[in-house]
Amino acid sequence: MAKIIVVTSGKGGVGKTTSSAAIGTGIALKGHKTVIIDFDVGLRNLDLIMGCERRVVYDFVNVINKEATLSQALIKDKRTKDLFILPASQTRDKDALTIEGVQWVLEELAKEFDYIICDSPAGIEKGAQMALYFADAAIVVTNPEVSSVRDSDRILGILQSKSKRAEEGKEPIEEYLLLTRYHPGRVASGEMLSVSDVEDILAIPLLGVIPESEAVLKASNQGTPVILDSESEAGLAYMDAVDRLMGEERPLRFLEVQKKGFIKRLLGG
Amino acid sequence: MTDSGFRLKGSVVTTVLLEIQTFSIDDIVFHLKEKINQVPHFFNQAPIIIDISKMKRGIRLEEFEELIQSVGALGLGVIGWRCDPEALPVWNASVTVPLLPASKARPINISPAIKEETSPDVVVKTVVEERLVPQSSKVITKPIRSGQQVYSEGDLIILNQVSAGAEVLADGNIHVYGALRGRALAGVKGDVEARIFCKSMEAELVSIAGSFMLSDALQNIVWKDSAQVLLVDDSLEIVPL
């Protein structure tokens, strides 16, 4: 049985799609057959981050409406084995998603895949609720600032009350915190919330801390998931997060302000 | 969210029962109006059931519909009607409001003499029960997240945190064995003896029986520390624990 993981946040622009792409790729790299679904109908982005925008023919809504088969709509990733993308429709809106339709697609995918990553749209309305409804686990993407933390808290409440597991009184959705765009320097100067501040407010297990990095923007523009960039701190931090998601122990990295180099210290740092 | 877009749930609503004994539309409207004027808030939009099981003579459909109209015009909402199942009128299926099953409570037989004496035109029976039994408290183990609201008719005991943007309300006391960052309102039905206890006071608002204090004021008294909130001579007191 496939594990359905929703990547959600409440707030927009915190890195849900970047994280979905990176984590989905990371899981596939570990040899698990993985599909990433873009639930952001009308604001399709995942295909750009994954660099497969020119290969989109059919989409999620076409499959729901039975205008195309799943195998026609699924795009096989060119770089990573075992990784597929189900793109969102750009010409429709969230109302095109129905609970029966989404359930059917997920059931069909579950027959073939080990992991289904649902890239949620921002907000707490229908689109976001559809993405999280069938989830077994949730990765709550949060930036270290108050409004993002507040919105994450809100979405955690929705996970507890409006998911299928909650409605059926089953074991609740596993919740994980993924702190993105973390800037140790700005935390040290008090401009940003620290890891412990966010953990204290949200009180869910920490999956990882992704440092703010130029590499993320570069990777997005190139259409390559940042996790494939093993030179970058962000890529390594995502790999750590995937390892933890798979149940491995990994110490947190990149939380400290970079030490000044020898020359800088010599010059009176 | 469900497949069908709705959920069916059982619910118990306190209603007013209008038990008709002798039918005279003018008398009923007159006396009912008098009753309503005494306690207008209670009757405003109150759900009401018309009971004709105690009527000695039968009633015609036109008369009954007129009664429903008139009661509705007084600002009450007729949600159904009842009659003796043995004497079900032939027109029972034509009434615009649903026929409700007869009350299970059997009337106590009192001697005919007394019965004759006490037969006013209209008896407005309120089925509001005086509940003397203390309400049980509600215990919550999960965090209360932003946007969530929890209410207890008795005490509310939360073994976790209350996030900013969440709201916890209780007719009785509120205990929060974690950080209280949202709003806590104790004694919402006016109990001035109610109190709020929390392990870490970081609330947006605390209120007891309508007297409230905002976080700005709280920060000057107790902040990020255990505290209790109580009402002393109509003013809120925040006391460290």
From TrEMBL, chain A:
ATP binds at residues 11-18. CDD domains: MinD. One of its GO terms (molecular function) is ATP binding. GO terms for cellular component: cytoplasmic side of plasma membrane; cytosol. It comes from the Bacteria. Residues 2-157 form the AAA domain. One of its GO terms (biological process) is division septum assembly. InterPro entries: AAA_dom, MinD, MinD_FleN, P-loop_NTPase, ParA/MinD_ATPase. Keywords: ATP-binding, Cell cycle, Cell division, Nucleotide-binding, Septation. NCBIfam families: minD_bact (TIGR01968). Interacts with MinC and FtsZ. Belongs to the ParA family. MinD subfamily. ATPase required for the correct placement of the division site. Cell division inhibitors MinC and MinD act in concert to form an inhibitor capable of blocking formation of the polar Z ring septums. Rapidly oscillates between the poles of the cell to destabilize FtsZ filaments that have formed before they mature into polar Z rings. This is Septum site-determining protein MinD. It comes from Marinomonas rhizomae.
UniProtKB/TrEMBL annotation, chain B:
Transmembrane segments: none annotated. It comes from Marinomonas rhizomae. SUPFAM superfamilies: Cell-division inhibitor MinC, C-terminal domain. HAMAP family: MinC. This is Probable septum site-determining protein MinC. GO terms for biological process: cell morphogenesis; division septum assembly; regulation of cell division; regulation of cell septum assembly. Residues 6-70 form the Septum formation inhibitor MinC N-terminal domain. Interacts with MinD and FtsZ. The keyword Cell cycle applies. Residues 139-238 form the Septum formation inhibitor MinC C-terminal domain.
